[in-house]
Each structure stands twice: as C-alpha cells, then as structure tokens.
TrEMBL record:
Its main location: membrane. It is a multi-pass membrane protein. The chain crosses the membrane at residues 30-55, 67-84, 90-109, 118-136, 142-158. The lineage of its organism: Bacteria, Bacillati, Actinomycetota, Actinomycetes, Kitasatosporales. This is Integral membrane bound transporter domain-containing protein. Residues 33-150 form the Integral membrane bound transporter domain. The keyword Manganese does not apply. InterPro entries: Memb_transporter_dom (IPR049453). The keyword GTP-binding does not apply. It comes from the Bacteria. Keywords: Membrane, Transmembrane, Transmembrane helix.
Length: 345
C-alpha cells in the first residue's frame, strides 16, 4: 500500500551489478589465459568474447546462447573460407561474403533475432586472411564457450526463489500505488484514469508471469530445496489478479475516453461525473487492501468480507449492465482471493 518501499528486481542493486561484473571478468580472463597456454595465438580475443556476448542476468540461458554463437562462428568460418578459396580478395569476393553472411544470419536466427555472429565471423575471417586463423578462431571460441557454460553458473549463482519473491513484492507495491491513485481520483470526482496510460502499467501486469517463470525454473533445478512457504500460492494469486485488475483499469480507461468525448453541458464545462464511479472508490480501496494482505501472506479474510459487502452495496445502488461491467474486474479479483483463501485452509 502507499508508503511501502520495495526494491525493484528489474533494477539490480550495486552488489548484484558487482557480482555480474566479476563473473564476466573471470569468464573472459580464464579462456584468454587458457588459449595463451595452449598457444592458439598471441592475442586470443575470440576466447574472451563469449563472456561478453553470452552472459546475462539469467546465467542458465548460457547454453542456448552458446549453441547459437558456436553455430554462427562455425558457419561464418565456413562461408568465408569457401569464398576465399574460390575468389581472390576483391570487391566481388567481399560482396559474396557479405550476401552469404546476411543470408546465414537470418536463416540461423530466431524470429526477430538474427544470428549476427555468422556475418561478424565471416567478415573477420575475410579481413584476416592468414593461414590457420579460421581454425584458431574456432578453437578459441570453443574454449570461451566451454568456460562460460561450465564456470559461469557456479560463480555467484542467482537464487530464482528470491528473484520471484522480490518481483512479487514489487508487483504488490505497484498495484497498491495504482489502486490507491484510482480510488483517490474517483473519490474526488476526478477522471477515472489518466488521459494517457503510462508504459509502466503494461510492465506491471507482466511482472507476475516473469516471477512465475523464475519460480518454475527454480523448482525444476533445485529439487532438494523447498520454496518459501506460501510463495507458490501467492504467485498464482498475483498472476490471476494481474488479469482481473488489468480488465478493471482498462474499463476505467474506456470510461475516461467516453467522458472526454461526450458532449458537455456548456462550452468549456466538463461532463457531469458518473455517480457509480465516485461510489466505487471505497470498494477499490478495500479490494486493494485485501490483495495487499494476501500477497504479503497475512490474514485477509475480514477485509475480503468487507470488500464483498461493498460490492453488494454498489450493485444494489447501481444495478445497470454498464455498472456491472465496471465492477467485473474487482469481482473477479474477489473470486481469486476467495480461491486463494480456500487453498490455505
């Protein structure tokens, strides 16, 4: 609720950034010195590149990214070697490498994410036409990828359970601020929603799915460790409430557009406020409080009963179908809270 301070997990702390930086430095330095010891070249830059290009916050994605990079390097080496074997260095051979590299980049990439490593490697092999360089680049890339895949996850591995819990807290605080702002505007007779929705709102509704993915990833990989008590159920509630409350806020947006587009009583005079909107403000606050308590893992049955009573009172005072649509998102949120309460007993 208002006043709650939560660190957004999408904005990493200084400690998390230092750990990521240290992981990158180690995973870049180890293959560099391994290749120097092996004698592949005097400056094995390709061995250090996988750490820069593969390592992400989700270190468990490294195997997939490593496979894509290795495939791109192999195809790039093959393309450039074949072209240089048949054509002398010239504008024609450069154009052939460029066209073939672009084609391979899109053929081996994923939708919306071409494998740029194909073209990069092909051009570097073309620009460094030295005997043995293609094989040395391939070997150095293999060493770099092996270090990233095998060593990276062992260096300060992230805790997906903790990430899921932090994301849940951030979602809880964001929803609390959003609903508090909505209730305040409605109680004052102001517009039901801002004229232009903020992009942060769209990210707020997607956060529970990201938390759920982190939790499921941890459950698959950490079979010997149990998740925090109740976290699974609270994540499920967050995912359901994100859908229902998004419907509610979208309906408020539609009401706001309708009020702004409707004819005013006189030029320069705003349209009369909808009494159903002002009357729903206590229901919004009560629903927000019940959801906040539930997502914290605290007792919320009394507040849920109060919210349901306010829902019935609003339904009796404003029984039209138009007003039923307005209440639908909140009513479905109550159903999600009720199911969550039943699962805890």
């Amino acid at each position: 609720m208002p006043g709650t301070v939560v660190v957004d997990p999408q904005d990493p702390s200084v400690g998390a950034r230092l750990r990521s930086g240290a992981r990158l430095v180690i995973c870049a330095a180890v293959p560099w010195y391994l290749c120097l010891w092996w004698g592949t070249s005097t400056a094995p830059v390709p061995a250090a590149l996988p750490a820069v290009l593969i390592l992400r916050e989700d270190v468990y994605a490294a195997p997939r990214l490593a496979w894509e990079r290795l495939l791109g390097v192999f195809v790039g080496v093959l393309l450039s070697t074949l072209v240089l074997d048949r054509l002398p260095p010239s504008s024609l051979s450069f154009l052939a490498v460029l066209v073939c590299g672009c084609a391979g980049m899109y053929l081996l990439g994923r939708p919306g994410s071409p494998n740029q490593q194909v073209l990069i490697t092909a051009l570097m092999i073309y620009a460094t036409a030295l005997p043995g360089y293609p094989l040395a680049r391939l070997a150095e890339t293999l060493v770099g990828i092996a270090v990233v895949v095998l060593l990276g996850p062992l260096l300060w591995p992230p805790d997906p359970y903790r990430s899921a819990a932090e994301g849940l807290d951030a979602y809880r605080a964001g929803v609390g601020r959003l609903l508090d702002g909505v209730a305040g505007r409605l109680a004052r007779g102001g517009p039901p929603a801002p004229p232009d929705p903020l992009p942060e709102g769209a990210r707020l509704w997607l956060r529970p799915q990201a938390c759920r993915a982190a939790f499921d990833r941890a459950a698959r990989r950490r079979r010997t460790r149990k998740p925090p008590d109740g976290l699974d159920g609270r994540l499920g509630l967050a995912a359901r409430s994100a859908v229902t409350l998004q419907c509610f806020t979208q309906e408020l947006q539609e009401r706001a557009r309708g009020l702004s587009a409707g004819p005013a009583a006189a030029p320069g005079t705003p349209a009369a406020p909808d009494p159903a909107l002002r009357a729903i403000a206590p229901l919004v606050r009560s629903t927000a409080l019940a959801l906040d308590l539930a997502l914290r893992g605290e007792e919320f049955a009394a507040e849920l009963d109060r919210a349901r009573g306010l829902d019935l009172a609003h339904r009796a005072a404003h029984p039209t179908r138009h007003d039923a649509v307005l209440r639908a998102g909140l009513h479905l949120t109550h159903e999600a809270l009720s199911d969550h309460l039943a699962s805890r007993r």
